[in-house]
Structures are given as C-alpha cells and as structure tokens.
TrEMBL record:
Residues 1-51 form the HTH tetR-type domain. This is TetR/AcrR family transcriptional regulator. Keywords: DNA-binding. Pfam families: TetR_N. It comes from the Bacteria. Residues 14-33 bind DNA. It comes from Nocardia stercoris.
C-alpha cells in the first residue's frame, strides 16, 4: 500500500495498484482487508507504532532534559523525513476519510500523548522542577508538529528545517505555566 501511495497518492491509488506492486492477488488482498482504506489505515497504524518505538529508543533518559527533548524531536523528524510522501498523505488525506479514520486518529493521538507525557516524567525532568505536559498541551504540540511537517513538504522544504522550532516549542510547553 505504501508503494502505491508513493507512486499515485492515496486518492488515486487503487487496489489493483496495491496488488500489482505487492505481487499478490486481489483474493489475497481481500482476505486481509475489506477495502483500500482499511489497508491504508492498517499501514498507518503500524507505522505509528514503529514511530513511537523509534522515538522511545532514541531518548537517553540519563541525558540532560533539554537533550532528551532534542533527541525525541530529531527521532520523530527522522522517521517523517524517511518517507515524506506517506507522511504528507497521513497528515492531509486521513482526516478526509471520514468516520473510518477517526479511530486511527484518536488512537494515534493517544499513543503520542502518552509517549510525550512518559518521556517528560523522568528523574531528569523532575530534578529540573518540570512536570509532564497536560494531555491538552501534548495534543497541541503534536498538532503543531504535524502542521509544520505538512507545510514543509507542501512548500518543498527539507523537513529537518523544523527541528529547532519544534524543540523550542516543546521546551516552551514544558517550561510554561503548569495547570493541573
């Protein structure tokens, strides 16, 4: 499915493209997925799990807290940079899919919010007098990062150009007023 989206975009990709590129049959496809959309949602859910695992693995919890923030942001941006077409499609196409994609969006958001809160709930952060961001704060951060990435791709800019502003935004969230 990823290859079909990279070649044609999500909207123009067809099940025929998917099975041709995967060198499989329609029958096999439909044994696993009910539709092109179902297949794409499964791909993105798996990609999200791998992204979260990559970010977790990249953060050295013994490093200074500001370094941990940079490590997390850089790991996330690296994953997005590795596949900008799929990243852009995920950000722009999924919201237009309607009800079927809402569970994916909610699950993805919840997984990233949990990740952000867990990464900021370590000894280094507590020693600096910091608390994990609120759920709403983490959602704002995720939404801002996603929009920065989408506009960078749309403008033909290198996604890594947003690393510094993303790090600064995350640090500002962590340092800002904390409300229970």
């Amino acid at each position: 499915m990823g290859d079909a989206v990279r070649a044609h975009g999500y909207r123009e990709a067809t099940v025929a493209d998917v099975v041709r590129l995967a060198r499989t049959s329609r029958r096999t496809f439909y044994e696993h997925f009910s539709s092109k959309q179902d297949c794409y949602i499964a791909l993105l859910a798996e990609r999200n799990h791998l992204t979260v695992a990559t970010i977790q693995a990249a953060v050295d919890v013994d490093a200074p807290w500001r370094s941990q923030v940079r490590q997390a942001v850089e790991a996330w941006i690296d994953v997005q940079t590795a596949d900008p077409v799929l990243t852009h499609s995920w950000i722009r196409d999924v919201p237009a899919m309607g009800e079927a994609s809402h569970a994916l969006q909610r699950d993805t958001s919840a997984e990233f919010v949990s990740l952000v809160r867990a990464l900021a709930d370590t000894e280094r952060f507590r020693a600096a007098g910091l608390r994990p961001p609120t759920r709403d704060g983490a959602v704002m951060l995720l939404g801002g990062f996603r929009e920065l990435i989408a506009t960078a791709v749309e403008d033909g800019r290198d996604i890594t150009d947003i690393v510094d502003v993303a790090v600064d935004s995350a640090i500002a969230l962590l340092l800002g007023p904390q409300r229970g």
